[in-house]
Amino acid sequence: MTSVLYDVPGPKARRVSLIGSVVGTVLILGLLAWIGMTLAQQGIFEGRRWAIFTRGDVWTLLAYGLGATLTAAALAAVIAFPLGLMFCLLRISLVAWIRIPARVVLEFLRGMPVVLMMLFVLLVFGTSSFVAVVTGLVLYNTAIFAEIIRAGIQSLPKGQREAGLTIGLTSFQSRLLIELPQAVRRMMPSLVAQLVVLLKDTSLGYIVAYGELLRAVQVMADFLGNAFLFPIFFVAAAIYIVINICVSRLAIWIERRGSTKTAGGVAPAPTAVVAPELPEVTERK
Amino acid sequence: MEVILENLPLYWEGLLRTLFLSVVSGIIALVLGTLLAAARVSPVAALRGFSTVYVEILRNTPLTIAFFFAAIVLPRLGVTFQQFEVAAIIALSAYTAAFIAEAVRSGVNSVPLGQAEAARSIGMNFGQVLNLIILPQALRTVIPPLINILIALVKNSSVAGAFFVLELFGYGRQLANANGDQVMAVLLGVAFFYLLLTIPLGILASTVERKVAIAR
Amino acid sequence: MKAFMTRRKSFFVAATAALALSLSACGGSTPGTSNPTVADKPTFAAGTTMAKLTAAGTIKIGTKYDQPLFGQVGLDGKPVGFDVEMGKLIAAKLGIAADKIEWSETVSANREPFIEQGKVDIVIATYTINDKRKQVVSFAGPYYEAGQALMVNKDNTSITKPEDVAGKKVCSVTGSTPAATIVDKYKAELVPAATYSACLEPLRNKQVEAITTDNVILAGFVDKEPDAFKLASDQTFTKEPYGIGLKKDDTEFRNWINDQLEAFGKDGSYKKAWEATAGSVIKTAPELPAINRY
Question: Cβ B72–C176 below 8 Å, yes or no?
């Protein structure tokens, strides 16, 4: 991988960089080892504490919690995304009395803590905790999705809209048919990142007693006793990281798969960092 | 509504604590995040690797778990602090830095290739290219997303209420428990004070966006 | 492959057995459950809440899922504890078997709204009776009188009474009544946590001087780690009468529950419920407090 930000390193620079890398890696590994040793001295890694993970009911509860987390996140994402698209269109409408209320609503939703919205929904509408969690997530993420897509539309070259209007599309048609699809493509990385945030935010459901993964973990640690606190939390952290990395990877894969199929190609923002994309960019010019 | 007026000092105290956590963590996260982003595009493989792993792990961990490590695992390693705000700031800034690093990195990616090429061709080295040419332009395009991250930070600080720091949301829960007959009013008050912090940030974001937007 | 599978299986069996042993060795205070005898087709005056519940054959009870010994959810998702036992006893008198009870978790913030909206029929959730709450819900009971206490590290001699914590860091649950008391009345510096068990680590690390909440919950922690923690004193410094929350002004239902509570006190089922749960930690069984028929 070469970059235009710096020269291809010569033998000397490569040696310095290699030494630096080795020293750095050794330092980090040393730190990790020290952390491990210190925790081990306190008996955190005793087999007795980890043996709970051979129990069926522990895994059943974890699986149940994970299921609850994924269900709430999936449902919220599926509802929030189209709503976000809609609000984005309202927010950039040319008509002031559509644009301004939309903006007020979005600012409000964006500024409220998700925990508060969940609690509100639960208390005011007397819903189940599941509905409260999903609604809270939908309200907040609608605003975020709308903002992301709006940023995407604004980053499009002006010519796209102009061309649309020229061939006789109305402003709305141009937004819907020309700009929106490109904006969504362009902002895919941000949208996926937000999806991961959404998934993690399900853990705020503790406030309305929704039994998602983190709540299951806490309940388990309480029930089994403090000795198992560390193992349970380590495993929970690992589960979250694995699931979220999978979500990110899956989305990247879908994006790649989709983009090869289109004739026009996605316009990846010209990048200053990685050179391999260089010929592609010059070609388009 | 009178419950809000009666307890205005408590709300105020909570607001100040939330503000304090957000400002301090925000500053640390901005510095740390920018360094991480620079490391991500640097020539040294270990820096790139470290930055990538750090960002991937922190971005994919729920904040609650980050708090758990800062407030409960760290003391076990001998890092004890008498002020729990320290743990909260460690968790919040470590977590937020990962998001800032990603935002800055995508900002770096949005700077046209020619800029870097031109800088390189007049003989600048990596540090100069990054500091003088790329980052100033990148920061302009990333300011709106950065402010969004800071808004999220203000709201995320509410998790500290579960980890030994009493802030706005914590006071809200305390008031809700003490005033079982007026739970709704108490929570509306909490919402109002959060909006007091986040709405100006949101307006700032769109103003900055309009001011610095690169004409296309 | 097959050999591997068998070996693997036998490892699992051995590990599970070892775990069962170690758990039973270190636990010793896992709350038990009982199965009270269910009344056979009780009859009530038409139109009363009791008649409705009996006819429906089910009752919705809200309880806490994170209060050790009172209402705590187990790994199977079912709550156990003294509150839960009280719920079962009341349900039995309505002719509803324990497995027909619909448990739902109530957290501090949603107890009143849940009762008002009818999402639960009664709330038994370490629910302290107080005047503000009485304005929106009614209370039967009290069925237990807890009191606030302090727990400190085993080697701590400086804290023996609540006045000793003035200006010191004390851990309790965010937004709980004990947390408010220790701050307002005894001027401690509150360190809020999500659950009481989350307070244990800071206490162990000496980042806080004490943990405060109702004595029974603290007794549960001391029982699990007697070498690390102790109660600052056997005296409690507040009275927390736990009541059963129900819809405001449903006086018939409230009186009926009060009658049942008194009956439980007389026929020994109150004592039995205690011994099956919190009694595993606190040896002296409480007397049923005088019912407050307001």
Answer: no
